[in-house]
Amino acid sequence: MRPAWYNLLVLIGTAGAWASWWSVVTNIEPASGNPAALAYFFSTLFFSLMGTIYFGAYFLQMRLIGRQAPIQCVRASTRQAVLFTTLVCASLLLQGWRLLTWFNAVLLIALLTFIELMFISRQRHPVVAGEWRRP
What is the rounded distance in angstroms from the CA atom of residue 83 to the CA atom of residue 56? Predict the structure, then answer.
């Protein structure tokens, strides 16, 4: 899939996720203790934050840094958005249960940093924009 089509789909999905999150916040009380309400709240928050963070990371990588091919920027931005959104939502969920401590936060950050470094180290041939390699 071309990066432009992917960005369009992510934009539409992010707008829908923000609209759903706004609907949850204004119509359903997430703190009512209903597990379905909490699941709906956190799932819509996850997808809306993921799309927003994706576009921020994609903009930074494409426009400001600009050394990678567009497909590499899409991959890295998607991966970073998923990991950072997981950190934020897991922290909010733990805080909602009053279980977030500095130790849990450090463990979450270390785990997600390890996963990010594992993805980076498994890239065999990083592609630089304008460079072509023969297999």
Answer: 14
Strand-pair partners of 68: 128
21: β partners:
none
Q: Is the dihedral of CA 101, 86, 72, 125 positive or negative?
A: positive
pTM summary value: 0.83
Question: Which residues touch 13 (CB under 8 Å, ≥6 apart)?
Answer: 47, 51
Q: Output the CA torsion 72→75→78→80 (10° steps).
A: -80
Q: What is the largest CA-CA distance in the chain?
A: 59
In this structure, what token pair is assigned to residue 38?
Answer: 């909490």
- Per-residue pLDDT tens digits for 9-27: 999 999 999 999 999 888 8
Q: Which residue has the tokens 């939502």?
A: 89
Q: Count other C-beta atoms under 10 Å from residue 55's C-beta.
A: 16
Contact 3, 73 (CB under 8 A): yes
- Per-residue pLDDT, averaged over 86-114, amounts to 95
Rounded CA separation 46/123 (Å) = 27
